[in-house]
Amino acid sequence: MAVPKRRLSHSKTRTRRSHHFETAMQFAVCANCKSPIPSHVACPNCGMYKGRQVMDVTKKLRKIEDKRKAKANAS
Ligand SMILES: [Zn+2]
């Protein structure tokens, strides 16, 4: 197995890691509901992407509501 010939100095390690930082996420504005959304992602608020409906955002809410009703009926 290949083995490094010399140990890396702290400076060399830190210089390499100087690029290992996170940058703030860039947000676009939804054309439909004007809420800030990450670019190239369907809007989590209204479910629109490039002017068409791509996901049902009420599905999750309905599921939660059904669960709550079932719980209320049980007790
Ligand atoms: Zn939207």
From TrEMBL:
GO molecular function: structural constituent of ribosome
SUPFAM superfamilies tied to this protein: Zn-binding ribosomal proteins
InterPro entries xref list: Ribosomal_bL32, Ribosomal_bL32_bact, Ribosomal_zn-bd
Gene Ontology terms: cellular component: large ribosomal subunit
Protein's GO biological process: translation
Keyword annotations of the record: Ribonucleoprotein, Ribosomal protein
KW Ribonucleoprotein (keyword) present: yes
Family, similarity comment: Belongs to the bacterial ribosomal protein bL32 family.
Protein name: Large ribosomal subunit protein bL32
Species assigned in the record: Candidatus Andersenbacteria bacterium RIFCSPHIGHO2_12_FULL_45_11
